[in-house]
Amino acid sequence: MPGMIERNVAGEALQFHADRAVFWPSRNRLMIADLHLGKGDVMRAAGIAVPTGGTAHDLARLDVLLRVTCATELWVLGDFLHGRRSAAVERAWRALLVSHSTVVVSVVGGNHDRALVPDALDVALLPEDVRDGPFRFRHHPRPAGDETGGHVLCGHLHPVVKLPGLPGRYPAFVLDADETVLPAFSAFTGGMRIEDPAQRWIACAKGMLAGNA
Fold first, then answer.
1. Domain total for the chain?
2. Domain that holds residue 13
3. Quick check: 17 pLDDT over 60?
4. Which of 158, 183, 181, 161 has its CA nearest to residue 170?
5. What is the rounded distance in angstroms from the CA atom of residue 147 to the CA atom of residue 207?
6. pTM
7. For residues 148-176, average pLDDT
């Protein structure tokens, strides 16, 4: 099982990485969805006992992906934050940007991004439906009845799959003819289980990729 595979999507070569990211070489753009920075802080503030270190772990993974791909753009397809602003989270994010000073970061706002202040995080806020080449970049999947064309890349659903012979569930990319759903980048999220045997997917399993797509 490889850690990266390339697939032709809507006529473009896209690289799918086992650490839950897609790289578009022709734009030199790394794409993730559902980063959910600060989710642990929000839950602890609500009295829910969860481990610390989730934000640091996710940003360390993102740091590696930016270095491996040499991306000059990073697009986050929604839910950059999980909830309220956090000074600690903003410091950690800005520290990552210092290490990647040539990377331009853009965010498609998600349903958890109500507290997002782009200038405070040195990111650009994109519209909720952005077109570039053959693609449409969104947080939510294509609306029912939408026939406006363009292959949608999105997040929001946090798809997961069960792999034969392995315990637990694994984050997965879901690939349809006109839509690709990215798994949640945050390691601290639940997921929507994909059970349709006709569905095409690529699972991210312990640093490797496996699937039927």
1. 1
2. 4-211
3. yes
4. 161
5. 36
6. 0.92
7. 94
User: Which residues partner with 31 through β-bridges?
Assistant: 22, 75
CATH number of domain containing 195: 3.60.21
Give the model confidence (pLDDT) of 21-37 as tens digits. Answer: 999 999 999 999 999 99
Tokens matching residue 67: 């270095």
At 114, the pLDDT band (50, 70, 90 cuts) reads confident
Q: Bridge-partner residues for 184, per DSSP?
A: 33
Q: Are 73 and 103 in contact (CB under 8 A)?
A: yes
HEC-encoded secondary structure of the chain: CCCEEEEEECCEEEEEECCCEEEEHHHCEEEEECCCECHHHHHHHCCCCCCCCHHHHHHHHHHHHHHHHCCCEEEECCCCECCCCCHHHHHHHHHHHHHCCCCEEEEECCCCCCCCCHHHHCCEEECCEEEECCEEEECCCCCCCCCCCCEEEECCCCEEECCCCCCCCEEEEEECCCEEECCECCCCCCCEECCCCCCEEEEEECCEEEECC
Helix pair angle (54-69, 87-99), 10° resolution: 20
Q: Which residue has the tokens 């939510």?
A: 140
